[in-house]
Specification:
single chain, alpha+beta, Immunoglobulin-like, Zincin-like, Neutral Protease, domain 2, 7-stranded mixed β-sheet, 5-stranded antiparallel β-sheet, 16 helices, disordered N terminus
Length: 589
């Protein structure tokens, strides 16, 4: 990086941690070239990739502003996330503030005596109208810390200093500061850093090998890896999960002692696969609403089912292609995903495109009725990716699949046009690649709530979806209970179930069934309510006694046959050559 370029920088940040045990990060912001009588500094209210207004300004304390001589400048907070500073035409302004950081997640900052994780949208303010300005960020680690991990480029002439060409890049570049265990590997010409916080029973050599395989397989799809360097920040907890994608890095949550089991390792590698695929899908190829961002309000899109759902589909596809799981295991995972979606009543209530649009008010704020009223654009979006993949392969006689669609979209809208795509443009490219109309898929499955005809699409590859629960005759109440403070409490009531129709509510305390006291049991896997229902048959009537807000009540209901599915995917006999070709193309056999 040239010194002349750095000399033009007008914004510089310096972060310190004098009280990490109290969860504070101290921020100093220096702004030069100020020519107006006042300047407005703003804090984002959300972070890209996590579609919820999080109000990061709530964590700001001790805001102060000074001129270049150190004289304190007056300021006024004019909105929830805006501080207006009267600059007195000083030309240079220095601002200081503290950020309380004590929320563990991949999208929020956390500081304690062991480390600091900095999620930039909740740390760095920006001058209004200057999101395109470059900045330098200097990190002063606590005296007990020695390492800094971030995707930002280092400033070679200054220790612990990094360069961001604009605020979009800065907000897409988290920091891990502490004593993290760092190891590296090279795949597809890209240097990959893995920064492990929290310890764990991971084997570095196994992770290097398996993560490299995922990188290689994903790069094959697009023919190019957009980075020279990539950083995995991994937070290992007693029980952890989740991830958040960034421009050339990701933050992953993991369980520290699960790496040495087959299931635990595959779970982690699936998360790696998901977030790494976002390098192409979302961070570059993206719905048009997802950048440039408005950091002060919701950025609505009806295409999160593509952004996240397709990525959820590919995460398992790539672990299979990389040889990290067998085709048989992949099909078992896929069948379980179908069961999960089809057993959720909200799947028949809210359309996938509406679930995408409503992410800002529903996805990250579930309540006791969410399963009845909405569906995840991750899980159902993955199933749309599945049927679209199979339909393209079938309609093109195995010459193309979803890979070709994603590459065509990437080449057209990221590489060539450097902008996001509209819903119509995605559908148009899909139909061009497949050589057929997808009006019915969009009408029924994207914008409608019709049940997917899975066997139509699985049939292309010589598979069939079998419901092993179809012949069952188990009784069904439709209420989920949990043991809380020694009481059996209703935690969920399924739409149109006997419990729903009888008026049983979430938070009701179940006391007795048919006059017999229901006691808590030592085995939490099977409550006394479930144990009682399992002894009954569909059509039988029962009387439930319960307490609601301290008032004793009763309700009578008739049990029905359990409507839930338990799917598996099986091969059909006597496969045709066409089915074999589709299967080979789909599963990369």
């Amino acid at each position: 990086m040239s010194s002349s370029l750095l000399a033009q920088n007008k914004i510089a940040f310096e972060l310190s941690f004098t009280e990490p045990q109290a969860h504070y990060a101290e921020v100093q912001m220096n702004i030069s070239g100020v020519k107006s009588a006042h300047i407005d500094l703003k804090m984002p209210v959300w972070t890209p990739g996590s579609y919820l207004i999080r109000e990061f300004s709530k964590n700001v304390e001790g805001f102060k502003a000074f001129d270049q001589g150190g004289k304190e400048l007056p300021f006024e907070k004019i909105s929830k996330n805006t501080w207006r500073i009267s600059t007195a035409n000083s030309g240079k302004v220095k601002v200081s503030y503290r950020i309380y950081s004590f929320e563990i997640s991949v999208r929020t900052s956390f500081v304690d005596e062991s480390h600091a994780f900095l999620s930039p949208t909740g740390i760095f303010m920006y001058p209004d109208g200057q999101l395109n300005e470059a900045s330098e960020i200097t990190i002063n680690p606590h005296e007990t810390w020695s390492k800094i991990s971030t995707g930002l480029e280092k400033v070679s002439s200054k220790p612990n200093t990094f360069y961001a060409p604009n605020f979009d890049v800065l907000y897409d570049s988290p920091f891990e500061v502490g004593n993290q265990d760092i190891f590296e590997f090279v795949a597809e010409g890209v240097q990959h850093e893995v920064a492990m916080y929290g310890g764990g029973n991971y084997d570095k050599e196994i992770l290097k090998r398996d993560m490299s395989k995922i990188v290689i397989e994903q790069t094959k799809t697009f023919g190019i890896n957009p980075n020279k360097r990539y950083v995995f920040i991994v937070h290992n907890f007693n029980s952890g999960g989740g991830g958040l994608e960034h421009l050339n890095s990701t933050v992953l949550g993991a369980s520290r002692n699960s790496y040495n089991t087959e299931a635990g390792l595959l779970r982690f590698l699936g998360l790696v696969s998901h977030e790494y695929f976002h390098l192409w899908n979302v961070k570059r190829l993206r719905p048009i609403a997802l950048g440039p961002f408005n950091y002060e309000q919701e950025n609505y899109s009806r295409n999160l089912w593509i952004a996240e759902g397709f990525t959820a589909y590919y995460q398992d596809i790539y672990t299979k292609r990389a040889g990290l799981q067998s085709p048989e295991r992949y099909l078992m995972t896929l069948a379980a995903s179908i069961s999960s979606v089809e057993n959720q009543p909200g799947n028949r209530v809210e359309a996938l495109s509406d679930a995408s649009f409503d992410a800002w008010i529903k996805q990250y704020r579930p309540n006791e009725n969410s399963a009845n009223s909405t569906i995840s654009y991750y899980s159902k979006g993955a199933l749309l990716a599945l049927i679209i993949d199979l339909e393209i392969i079938h309609s093109t006689q195995s010459k193309a699949g979803l890979d070709e669609l994603m590459k065509a979209m990437y080449d057209e809208y990221y590489t060539k046009k450097d902008r996001g795509f509209t819903d119509a443009e995605f559908k148009s490219m899909l139909e061009k690649v497949a050589g057929k109309s997808f009006d019915d898929v969009y009408r029924d499955y994207v914008n409608g709530v019709k049940t997917i005809d899975y066997n139509k699409y699985f049939g292309y590859a010589g598979f069939t979806l079998i419901d092993d629960a179809a012949k069952g005759n188990d009784a069904y109440l439709g209420a989920v209970t949990a043991l809380k403070d020694g009481k059996i409490i209703v935690t969920n009531v399924s739409r149109q179930s006997p419990a729903w129709k009888s008026g049983l509510n979430v938070n009701d305390e179940i006391i007795a069934i048919d006059g017999s006291r229901i006691n808590n049991v030592s085995d939490p896997r099977l409550s006394e309510v479930e144990k009682f229902i399992s002894s009954k048959k569909p059509g039988e009537k029962i009387e439930i006694s319960f307490s609601r807000d301290g008032i004793f009540r009763k309700t009578e209901l008739t049990l029905v046959r359990n409507p839930n599915h338990r799917f598996r995917i099986a091969s059909v006999p006597n496969l045709t050559q066409e089915q074999l070709a589709v299967r080979k193309r789909w599963l990369k056999l």
